[in-house]
Amino acid sequence: MKNNIDLALTVAEKQHLREQKISLKILSGYAIDEIASILQASPERAKELHALHEFQSIPSLGVGFAKELILQGYFSIEQLRGKEAVELFDAYEKHCCCWADPCVEDSYRLLVHYIEHKDGSKRWWDFSKDRKAYRAAYGFPADRPETAWYETDQYPKAKAHRKG
Fold it and tell me: Could you list the residue range(s) of the whole structural domain that residue 146 is in?
């Protein structure tokens, strides 16, 4: 189990944990309705926290990737079971309305590999060769967004660097 799981708890949620003497590691063992009760949070927030933990438990995947899965409507590994990495990545780009850094596609490949094999020895960069071979053979969808991730307002440092 990873030691650096970030649940992005609010100050109030952290206070509820302290008051009840519950650690973050123990919190992950509770059911969603119990998390809601412990943190005095909505069922939706408890579901999100549970998903943040579950997704970040996969080696090499961080809080940003976990949050993006949640924004796309995924709250469990089971919801992702049986999906193809390319399908997930292409949907991610459409969701973001921009094309993503190639390492993001590698992360989707890692996610699917982990779900299928429970192999925690791989990291996202282990899938770069497979991604490159796939894209060389099949390319990208015709309706792929035209704007690059670093050209969006989400990444002002990259945008400023290009102008500079």
Answer: 81-164
Q: Could you give the angle at which helices 43-56 and 32-39 cross, rounded to 10 degrees?
A: 120
Same domain, 137 and 159: yes
Q: Choose the final residue of a domain: 28, 54, 79.
A: 79
Domain match, 34 and 69 both: yes
- 156 versus 34: the higher-pLDDT residue is 34
pLDDT tens-digit profile of 28-40? 889 999 999 999 9
Separation CA 41–CA 21 (nearest Å): 17
Say how far apart CA 13 and CA 83 lie, in whole Å: 33
The total of other beta-carbon atoms located within 10 Å of residue 47's CB is 18
- CA separation for the pair 55, 105 (Å, rounded): 16
Instruction: Tell me the whole-structure pTM to 2 decimals.
Output: 0.86
